[in-house]
Automatic annotation (TrEMBL):
Cellular localization per UniProt: Cell membrane
Transmembrane intervals: 7-27, 204-223
Gene Ontology MF term list: ATP binding; phosphorelay sensor kinase activity; protein dimerization activity
Lineage: Bacteria, Pseudomonadati, Pseudomonadota, Betaproteobacteria, Nitrosomonadales
GO cellular component: plasma membrane
CDD domains recorded: HATPase_UhpB-NarQ-NarX-like, PDC2_HK_sensor
Catalytic activity as recorded in UniProt: ATP + protein L-histidine = ADP + protein N-phospho-L-histidine
Protein name: histidine kinase
Membrane topology: Multi-pass membrane protein
Amino acid sequence: MKLRQKIIIFATVPLILALCIIAYAVYHHATELAKAQQEVIRQTYLASKEMELRSYVMLARHSIAHIYESGRKDAAAMDDAKAILARLDYGSDGYFFVYDLEGKLLVHPRRPHLIGLNRWDYKDLNGFPTIQQLISRARQGGGFVTYSTEKPSTRKPAVKLTHVIPLSDWGWVLGSGIYLDDVDEVLTNVEAQVWSNNFDTMRWIGVIAFLGVIVVIASGLVLNIRERRAAQAEERARVAGELHDDICQRLISARLQTETGIIQLTGMPEQFTPAQSTFERMAAELNNILGDIRKIAHDLYPGTIGSGPGLTTSLRQLAHDMENIAASVEFTAGGDTDGLSGSVNKVLYRVAQEALKNVMKHAAASQASMRLEGGKHRVTLTIRDNGTGFDAGRIDSDPRFGMGLRNMKKRLGEVGGHLQINSTSSGTTVIATIPLSLLHYFLPRLP
């Protein structure tokens, strides 16, 4: 397994495990909090229902108080009280009922057909002895009883909370009930909301985990690319240094020795003339080889163009290295070229390198000049020569012509710049312009 893959795995696996642990903890605490919240809601809701129900029963008690507290126990008085209670209701399912202590139903406005029947043995949907419990609670002074029964308005089973009080003088049990299906509905909505919130939380954690893994992988790839580029740059610098400091120096020594031999052969008899010509050709060839090696060295490692101030120095060195016996190259600089990004510097250096190479190979020029001009909004590099020129139109029309110039245009296009070429029989001018913005100052400084 490659090192970068190991780094990515060792970085992503702990991240994913940590996020899974966080997700479980968040889910667990959210669930426990939801249960606690539901219990609080249930207790609060039941307390409010009990208070409401107790108030209803007390109102019913007060509505017949003038009869009950009169001391009368005759059937007429009880019938008047029954009639008042039968007329009292609240809402579609709110009514009052009366049982005697033997379980006989005396008042029930919703089910009048059951009045007069003994319901002592009646049990709810779950087998709970409802009437017995109501009477038992009334004998204890009153209280609440919860059971399951059919809700009149919906004809569906529902839990009912009932409050009863005793009317001891008449042997009655007076009560009323409230259905609790709305409580269950509220708790169901709360539970659904909690599950929805948990799902959204898990989804966001998943998104964060995915983005985190992507960032880790991308960072690993970027680091790998940067390390590879750094290694390549280091190797190229090493090779360039070897060429410049070793090979070039040995070639210079050989050229000097050859030139010394030429000087020594000067004035010698005519039979040494061929030898002198051979040495002169050797000196010229050594000079050409030296120039080519210097160009290769600069192609491998172009000076200090990674930083702003190094561009001027690198271009001046390039101009010096590109000079030969046939042509001179002059370099000048003006304006502010400090602080440019490494990518802009590198593009300008490569453009200058390609342009001067064309001058030396194809232009047959005796003079060339190169000027770097930095401004507030743009940086411009201009290369001029007094050579024979060429047909600039062939760059676009002939794919076999001007490959180097097309590469120059492509390089400039990558940083938003453009290339202008003017060529006549008296010389050629190449102008590379790169507009400057904050983006160009903060572009990555590539090696």
